[in-house]
Amino acid sequence: MKAAARTLAFAAIAPLATCLRAQVPPANVGARMQEISQALGVSCNYCHTAEPGSRQPEPKKEIARAMMAMMRDLNAQIEAAIGKTAAEAARVECVTCHRGVVTPRQLADLVMQTVREKGAARAVEQYRDLRSRYYGRQAYDFGEDTLIDVARRVADARPDEAIALLELNLEFNPQSARSYMALAHAYTRKIDDASAMAALEKALEIEPDNGVARGQLEQLKSYHRKR
Ligand code: HEC
Ligand code: HEC
Predict the structure, then answer these.
(1) What separation, in Å, do the N-terminal and C-terminal C-alpha atoms of the chain show?
(2) 126-152: pLDDT as tens digits
(3) 101 contacts: CB under 8 Å, gap ≥ 6
(4) Cα–Cα nearest to 22, from 54, 47, 59, 56
(5) Atom 30, ligand 2: which residue's CA is nearest?
(6) C-alpha 59 to ligand 2 mean position (Å)
C-alpha cells in the first residue's frame, strides 16, 4: 500500500513518459530522485539519457554524481566547523544552491551578463521571461533591488541601458523611490537634468521624508539657477 502510494505521488510529479528511461526505482531511491529533480527543475531524463543496460554515457548523471560527493564533503566540513552532529546541523542540499534551476546564477548576474553581451533590450526581454516563469519561486529574486543593482553598475558607462532597466523595474514596482533615485542618477550621466529632477520629484512624492532625494533635487536646482 505504502509503495503504491509513493508510485502514484511520483507519477503525479514526473509525467510517466519522462521517466521511461529511468527504471522504476525502489521507494527510497524514488523519493531521493524526485527531490533532486525538483531541486534542479528538471525531469528524470535530464540525467537518465541512456536506455537502461545500454551502457551509453550519461554526462549529466556523472555531474550529478560528482555533486553528490561534493555535498557529502561540504556537509562533513560544515559539521566539523560548527561542532554539531549530522543530526543537529543544517544540511546543504542540492536545492540550497540550485533553487529549482540547473545553473544556479543570481538574477542580477544573469541580467548583467545579457546587458554586457546583447544590450538592455534583450536583458529586459530576459527579465520579463524569467519573471513570468519563476515569479513566486525561490529561483530568482524579483524584488526591487535586483534591477537597481544592475542599473547602478552600468549607469556611468551606459546610462540609456540603465534607464531601460529602471523603467522596467518601475513597471513592476511603481512605488520604488529608490528606482526613481537611480533613474535620476542615470539621467544626470546624460546631462539631462530636467528628467533627473522629474525623477527626484517622483521619488519625493512616494517618500516625502527622503533627505537624500531632497538634497539631490536642491543641488540640481541651485546648479540650474547658477547657469
Ligand atoms: C540531476 C540528475 C538526476 C536526475 C534529474 C534524476 N536522477 Fe536518478 N540518478 C542520478 C544519479 C547520479 C544516480 C546514481 C546515484 C548514486 O550513485 O548514488 C541515479 C540513480 C537512479 C536510480 C538507480 C539506478 C541507477 O541508474 O543508478 C534510479 C532507478 C533513478 N535514478 C531513477 C530516477 C527517476 C525515476 C528520476 C526522476 C524522478 C531520476 N532518477 C532523476 C541522477 C539523476
Ligand atoms: C554548493 C552549491 C551546489 C550544490 C550543493 C549542488 N550544486 Fe549542482 N551546480 C552548482 C553550480 C554552481 C553549477 C553550475 C556551474 C556552471 O554551469 O557554471 C552546478 C551544476 C550542476 C549540474 C550541471 C547542470 C547543467 O546542465 O549544466 C548538475 C546536473 C548538478 N549541478 C546537479 C546537482 C545535484 C544533483 C546536486 C545535489 C546532489 C547539486 N548539483 C548540488 C552548485 C551546486
Answers:
(1) 83
(2) 999 999 999 999 999 999 999 999 999
(3) 40, 41, 134, 139, 140
(4) 47
(5) 64
(6) 13
Asked if 58 and 49 count as a contact pair (C-beta separation under 8 A), the reply is yes
- 157: Cβ–Cβ under 8 A, 6 or more apart, which residues? none
Q: Which atom of ligand 1 is nearest to the CA of 42?
A: 5
Exposed / middle / buried, residue 192 (Cβ in 10 Å: 0-12, 13-18, 19+): middle
Instruction: List residues near ligand 2 (CB under 6 A).
Output: 36, 40, 60, 63-64, 67-68, 71, 92, 94, 96-98, 102-104
d(CA 88, CA 78): 11
In degrees, to the nearest 5, what angle opens at C-alpha 119 toward C-alphas 117 and 124?
120
Q: Is the pLDDT of residue 86 over 50?
A: yes
Taking a C-beta distance cutoff of 8 angstroms, is the pair 100, 137 a contact? Answer: yes
Instruction: Name which residue sits closest to atom 14 of ligand 1, judged by CA.
Output: 65
Phi/psi at 48 (5° precision): -90, 80
How much is the pLDDT for 226?
72
Model confidence over 169-197: pLDDT tens digits? 999 999 999 999 999 999 999 999 999 99
Nearest to 42 by CA among 95, 100, 97, 103: 100
Predicted pLDDT at 221: 92
Q: Which residue has the cell 523611490?
A: 177
Give the distance between the most distant pair of CA atoms in the chain.
84
Residue partners of 2: CB distance under 8 A and separation at least 6: 27
